[in-house]
Amino acid sequence: MRTLLAWIAGGLTSVVLTPVALADGWNMPVGVTAISRDIYSLHMIIFWICVVIGVIVFGAMFYSLFRYRHSRGAKAATFHEHTSVEVIWTAIPLLILVGMAVPATATLKNMYDTSEADLDIMVTGQQWRWRYEYLGEDVAFTSNLGTPREQINGTGEKGEYYLLEVDEPLVLPVGQKVRLLLTSDDVIHSWWVPDLAVKQDAIPGFVNENWVRIEEPGIYRGQCTELCGKDHAFMPVVVEAVKPERFDEWLAERKEAAAQEASSADREWAMDELMERGQQVYGSLCASCHQEDGQGIGNFPALAGNEAMLDDVDWHIDRVVNGVSGTAMASFRNTLSAVEIAAVVTYERNAWGNESGDSVQPSEIAERLADQGE
Amino acid sequence: MWQAIKSVLAAFLGVQKDARRREDFASNRPGTFIAAGLLVGLVFVLLVAFVAVLAAR
Ligand SMILES: [Cu+2]
């Protein structure tokens, strides 16, 4: 009878828990790095230890409740202590805890070992996007939400990767040790990609370190996981892991594009070129606050029909380059190139019924940035 | 003193015989127990630090 009951209790528990533990989508992913696999197996081992303890403890409890109930004439025991039993039930949990701590600490030590990396990447959280800088490679870009506004506003059909897609993913080579240096420009963010088992805070004024060595090419998605303001849900992380040869090609392309962008600041830009580029920049970086139609919302001022802005180009450029300290209007000096700043300013001065006719040339901005840089 | 150390060790584990507890409380020298507590505490901290140093190597 006793053993039968224990078996029923144990059986029921595992029947309920096993599918939950193994079902896809309920459990944490195994991931694609050695560390993510270590963490997954730690998680499963500890989970099963908890299941076994739970079954034994609750099994014993329910069995005793049932077997020694008052209606069957059970009498309460009155002894005071039993030292050896007490020592045993103190020592066993102690051993279990130490047994779990040893492999967990070994994994933690491994996670903190950022030495001897093949590639260093600076990851900077900004309200509300991630900026990636390939240190020593002259390649840097921001990675903005790629989901179209209509899907967010509910006027369009939601895509498969709704809020988990970006315009430019972080591209990493597989098989290489990549060190991530995480920080933030404004508030605390957190960079999280479950398949890489990386979840690390990005804190202004601090640099946190972590590392990954991805084993399989693929696209891995994650999110900001520290509540960071209005668009917290709109700054996903997308990592594209590619073969090292492909990565070198990509890096060379990016370097070339950056050099071209820098040199294109020297030439004269036509109005419609600036407007087109400006609309892109505005859509990905400014519309979240100033709104697609330039009408602003709440504390974010309208730019359509904004007298102060339209009267004074210098003032306008200054707002974008330097931001307004103490407000949500950040400085875009390091985020945007001279071309992009010229384009977005031109766009704002000529969109939504603004008819200043001004076109701001990238060369003017470049000069200005150089002056201020000194 | 040895008596006090044994009682402190039992307290660290959280298990003590009732008879021993009565004996301890019959003594009117709390200073011995405080000293034993500080001593065993110090040894425990050093032990943990030692294990941590070993593990970090
Ligand atoms: Cu964030």
UniProtKB/TrEMBL annotation, chain A:
<feature type="domain" description="Cytochrome oxidase subunit II copper A binding">
    <location>
        <begin position="116"/>
        <end position="253"/>
    </location>
</feature>
<dbReference type="InterPro" id="IPR036909">
    <property type="entry name" value="Cyt_c-like_dom_sf"/>
</dbReference>
<keyword id="KW-0408">Iron</keyword>
<comment type="function">
    <text>Subunits I and II form the functional core of the enzyme complex. Electrons originating in cytochrome c are transferred via heme a and Cu(A) to the binuclear center formed by heme a3 and Cu(B).</text>
</comment>
<feature type="compositionally biased region" description="Basic and acidic residues">
    <location>
        <begin position="365"/>
        <end position="374"/>
    </location>
</feature>
<protein>
    <recommendedName>
        <fullName>Cytochrome c oxidase subunit 2</fullName>
        <ecNumber>7.1.1.9</ecNumber>
    </recommendedName>
</protein>
<feature type="domain" description="Cytochrome c">
    <location>
        <begin position="273"/>
        <end position="352"/>
    </location>
</feature>
<dbReference type="InterPro" id="IPR008972">
    <property type="entry name" value="Cupredoxin"/>
</dbReference>
<dbReference type="InterPro" id="IPR045187">
    <property type="entry name" value="CcO_II"/>
</dbReference>
<dbReference type="GO" id="GO:0005886">
    <property type="term" value="C:plasma membrane"/>
</dbReference>
<dbReference type="Pfam" id="PF02790">
    <property type="entry name" value="COX2_TM"/>
</dbReference>
<dbReference type="InterPro" id="IPR011759">
    <property type="entry name" value="Cyt_c_oxidase_su2_TM_dom"/>
</dbReference>
<comment type="similarity">
    <text>Belongs to the cytochrome c oxidase subunit 2 family.</text>
</comment>
<dbReference type="InterPro" id="IPR036257">
    <property type="entry name" value="Cyt_c_oxidase_su2_TM_sf"/>
</dbReference>
<keyword id="KW-1278">Translocase</keyword>
<dbReference type="InterPro" id="IPR002429">
    <property type="entry name" value="CcO_II-like_C"/>
</dbReference>
<keyword id="KW-0813">Transport</keyword>
<keyword id="KW-0679">Respiratory chain</keyword>
<dbReference type="InterPro" id="IPR014222">
    <property type="entry name" value="Cyt_c_oxidase_su2"/>
</dbReference>
<feature type="transmembrane region" description="Helical">
    <location>
        <begin position="87"/>
        <end position="106"/>
    </location>
</feature>
<feature type="region of interest" description="Disordered">
    <location>
        <begin position="353"/>
        <end position="374"/>
    </location>
</feature>
<dbReference type="InterPro" id="IPR009056">
    <property type="entry name" value="Cyt_c-like_dom"/>
</dbReference>
TrEMBL record, chain B:
<protein>
    <recommendedName>
        <fullName>DUF2970 domain-containing protein</fullName>
    </recommendedName>
</protein>
<keyword id="KW-1133">Transmembrane helix</keyword>
<keyword id="KW-0472">Membrane</keyword>
<dbReference type="InterPro" id="IPR021344">
    <property type="entry name" value="DUF2970"/>
</dbReference>
<feature type="transmembrane region" description="Helical">
    <location>
        <begin position="33"/>
        <end position="56"/>
    </location>
</feature>
<dbReference type="Pfam" id="PF11174">
    <property type="entry name" value="DUF2970"/>
</dbReference>
<keyword id="KW-0812">Transmembrane</keyword>
